[in-house]
Amino acid sequence: MIWIGLAIVVLTFYLIYKNYEARLVLACSGLIMAFIGQVFAGSSTTVSVAVDAFVKQLVNGGLVPTIVTVMGFGYVMTYTKCSDHLVNMLVKPLTHVPFIVIPGAALITWVLNIILPSAAGIAAAVGVLLIPALIALKVRPVMAAAAVFVGTWGSVVSPGLMFNPQIASIAFKAKEIPSADAMIVIMQEALPCAVGAVVAAIVLAVICAFLKEGVGSTEITKELPEGEEIQKDFKVNPIKAIVPIIPLALLVLASKQVGLLPTKAFSVPVCMLIGTAIGIVVAIFNKQKVGDVSKRFCRGAGDGFCDVVILIAAAALFAAGMKSIGLTGTLVDAMKGSQSVAMFAAAVGPFVMAAICGSGNAAALAFNEAITPNAADFGLTVVQLGAVAQIAAGLGRTMSPVAGGVIILAGIAGVNPMEIVKRTAIPVILALVVVTVLMFILN
Q: Which segments cross the bilayer (predicted)?
């Protein structure tokens, strides 16, 4: 049974790598393993139990409201152009300080990705502004694209990322944290990830200097992307630029670690709805229809449920299938008593999967559903193990030549995605080592 289960898992991730629909592949694999476990091994985790695991995620009161409201808020910020004002406000000053443009571009992208937690979305929003500006400073286009791409993992500390609410829910069930609050998880991840981001930015700057691809290294031999002239004349409205930050600021102020606002009154959904309400006010001043803003929010919420919640549910079904066929128990037994093995598996598995197929979501979700609840058996906390898995997935994506973000940036810069990845690989590998070690030491 174990070997059959392992073969199914390998085939599952191979199909995901080949760009088959991840939700369908995970769900089908989970059902097949659950059926085999029920019929041939007499497992207590039957097909009906596995389906129940799927359904429970669809109505998860801590997970679903967080994801759909964050996605809805993000769509509203895009529609009202508030996100454009924020990006322009942060990016433009870099062009006046040439010697920090490479690490600065990486860190600004990383911070913006926390607020707007879509790697491809932030790559497009920042890339269309920053890459032409860097090329104008005679930075080689491939390095300009790499500087933006290496910052597209900031979403790992965003309350809108699917993993943080998931880890919080698991940790709460394990009685490790007082409530299923994603901000508790984020506060434990924040410092290690911030240090990792700085390390990645500095290492990329060193690589840039070694390859002589920085400011003044080349002549401008290609036309800059269309629309650059418009961006040069873009007038930042500070009020609009601040709006996307408001929900994140409220969440930090209401976190147990800060405590300036009542935690229960300012949950993630509440803060996102406050931000959306402010977005509606902005839309009114923009002479945009309030009804259209509402439609954008609903579309974002719907896409969040479709793209994120159902993926999480499919991963839960897959994990139930692994348990039914006996694979989860075998993996747990293999890692029991060895912190180093568990941490290595959490870091390397999702990282490699993400680097290969451009998304580590499926691997990280499956790992967190199947292995992370058993963190205590390895002498680790749920947050440590789960956070390392999801951070590794984000970093692995940041050195994948097939990730959506790198393809967008390669198109803007007019370069080969593989050339970009060659420059981001060392920075993100070192960042993974730093973050994993710090998560182990500090938490």
A: 24-43, 63-82, 94-112, 118-137, 144-163, 183-211, 266-285, 305-322, 342-367, 399-418, 425-442
